Structure of Fibrinogen C-terminal domain-containing protein:
Amino acid sequence: MNFSLTFYPVILLVLTFVWAFLEDVCDQNDYECQHPNDITVMGHLENRKCHISNILRRIRQTTLLTCVKECFITSQCTAINYRKNWSLCDVVGEITDSALVEEDGCSFSKISTWPNSFAGVCTNHNCAAGQKCVKVDNGLYTCITVYCDEELPDIYDAVSIETFGLYRNLGAGNKFKCNDGFVLVGRPFVICTDYGKWKMLFYCIKQALFPPRDCDDIPHHYGSGVYSIYPTTSAKFDVYCEMDTDDGDWTIKEKQFSFAYIVLPILIETTYQIEQVIQRRLDGSTDFYRGWAAYQDGFGNLTLEFWLGDSLTYHTGNMFSTHDRDNDKAANHNCAGIYKGAWWYKSCHYSNLNGPYLPPGQISSYANGIIWETWKGYYYSLKSTKLMIKKV
Ligand SMILES: [Ca+2]
């Protein structure tokens, strides 16, 4: 009865040998060469066909079989493209007839024609869209994010220059170029960020409007976000442009001013006049008590919380001060140090929007929170602020 114990290892050795032999003859990525009879048994390939849209993932330097496996373990995958000469695998989501086109060197295959044993422990996984299933110890699996769930955002006035079309890999960028008559500002990519959301790194602007001096010059259809502007010919800034008009209580002001953006205090005083002073503080997650260099460069996550300047009547004409650069008019004090902020202090302030983020509401200390004196007085620290300015 010990027969089977010795017999099976022999069979395994033979199989291993045959496999290795074919690998020697055929290119290691060439499954069809290695397994001339297998391919029709295991899955159905439609040669010279490729599905050119809805590519969830693109995997380079991979074999056909790995491509099939990656499809099985990737949520929403229904088919693959495989380009043998490029060793390039597309994991394809929903299929549409119109997107299946002729392409030399490409093979298309519906995943339903393959045995799902390829997926191993990941067979019947329930990973969410944007994820793939990964085997872990003890016969279990886990899900990790591998592509952007959403389709690419609308890209205006530009065309893709990706050789094989757009894809959604996490961390990868799709390359574009602007149409004739437009100039590209930024880097020519739309990237799938590591948290699975798209981010545009560029926009296209009409030649006549380049370089854009402010948010007004930037095409509105791109929506609110961070953009590069050139307030002077030599200065470039990344700023937050507010393109939307519905923002709760600020609707009227938003309409009145249309756009808001961050500029440096020095710049504000020379180039712009500030019409409305509300600067963006949301939740205290950003430290605003910083030195001169930080304020000169700007800081913070532009889309979450950032600082802006102001020119209240009282503060007009005063220089910007930080704790390490006292430009205020108080001869015996350092206003920035006393009120823990950075501002156009005189001696000292009626507003202190870069002051420390305190629990919103009444405060016991004098004037050292986020203060807007003419609205709430010196013993009230604001919850959130947002500064909006416009060109005059
Ligand atoms: Ca002083």
Confidence is low (pLDDT under 50) at residues 1-23, 245-280, 301-308.
